[in-house]
Amino acid sequence: MPELLLRNARTLVTMDDAGTELSDADILIRDGVIVALGQGLATQGDTLDCAGCVVTPGLVNTHHHLYQTLTRAVPGAQDAALFGWLTTLYPIWARFTPDHMRVSALTGLAELALSGCTTSSDHLYLYPNGSRLDDTIEAAGMIGLRLHATRGAMSIGQSAGGLPPDSLVEDEAAILNDCLRVIDAFHDTTPGAMIRIGVAPCSPFSVSRELMRDAAILARDKGVMLHTHLAENDEDIAYSLAKFGCRPGDYAESLGWTGPDVWHAHCVKLDAAEIDLFARTRTGVAHCPCSNCRLASGIAPVRAMRDAGVPVGLGVDGSASNDAGNLVAEARMAMLLQRVASGPGAMSPREALRIATRGGAEVLGRGDHLGQIAPGYRADLAIWDVSGVEAAGSWDPASLLLAGPTRVRDLLVEGRRVVAEGQVVTLDLPAVLADQRRLAEALARNE
Ligand SMILES: [Zn+2]
């Protein structure tokens, strides 16, 4: 790949250990990797003028259900808490096909890209009508974002006392076999990997104790990461105490679900002992503030987690419970919620942006190559035009989460432009949105 030189960025937010920010700076990229930072750099290759722009590392989304982009603002689920919300949506999701999975993922990934996200995880835990994880992976390849696709699963249906209809649950041996299949087919361990696979039973209340344990053994054997939902709200804690006789942290620990190769979504209700456990074991958290507000789950103790040393990243969560998928807006909400909980000094805009970039990269095990702007790191960059109306009058445009903007001008993944001049350039997005509208309307008509 020829060189690309980003020239004359107003502010370059490196996210290095010292929090260095460079003014009027250039970034030289070669073969998808950052090779130099500084002023007055030269190239024989292409140049991209970044005057009037703040450049940050690409944002990293650590929790999502891309298939849910087709079920935003579903009337019966707009005002329910977690368990009621799930039981409203399960019958709709049971009608999905591979086409729904692909189109929904393309839409969700395009939305993420426009909001500065270069790497997303996805948690797909239902596979109706021949759907496969491959459908989502194909979508990520089409748009050109990095994807950590996790092979989710549910095995306890209504007839066994669970929440999902029996048609959405799978046999546990088949689940483990398909985990092996997708790991062998897609998992890439190289530093520039565009696809990595994780193993991700949906939650402790939708699979058996044995599957949780076996999934952890399988993931460690294959060298992939583990992901699930944990301690999301009060109902979740009550279920754990009643069913397992312990809190979620103890349950996770007893089944091998702690360690630097594990990250849990939500963790709104972690207590002090669980925060200590996560910090000691370097177990990661995907904080999803908008979803937690939307479902009235509570405010996750992110300040306490960060102070204790728990790795924390951000997630937009599925579009059925947000219902947006704008990652930079999610970072702003993370900052605001910690202030509501703990006062105006509880989280600065720069710390929230650090969680959204470097924090997410570290949670996903990519901290050596993603999440910073430094020589040797992959060229995943978000370019924010701060000369427009949103940031007009800002004395400190690098405090991006205070004044905006909330859409990128350009987005580079592995040195390639996915967004240029505010438009996704790797896809025919209007055609994707037409497909999305057709499928959503048919679902709403119960067809
Ligand atoms: Zn979720």
Alpha-beta content class? alpha/beta
Bound small molecules, deduplicated: zinc ion
Strand content: 15-25%
pLDDT under 50 segments (min length 5)? none
| DSSP E strands, number | 17
Radius of gyration: 21 Å
* H/I helix tally: 14
What is the end-to-end distance? 47 Å
Walk me through the structure.
Strands 1, 2, 3, 4, 5, 14, 15, 16 and 17 form a nine-stranded mixed sheet that branches. Strands 6-7-8-9-10-11-12-13 form an eight-stranded parallel sheet. With 447 residues, the chain is α/β, with parallel strands linked by helices. The chain has 14 helices and 17 strands. It starts with a strand and ends with a helix. Helix 2 runs parallel beside helix 3, helix 4 packs parallel to helix 5 and helix 11 crosses helix 12. Helix content is 36%, strand content 21%. The mean pLDDT is 96. Zinc ion (ZN) binds next to loops. Zinc ion binds next to loops.
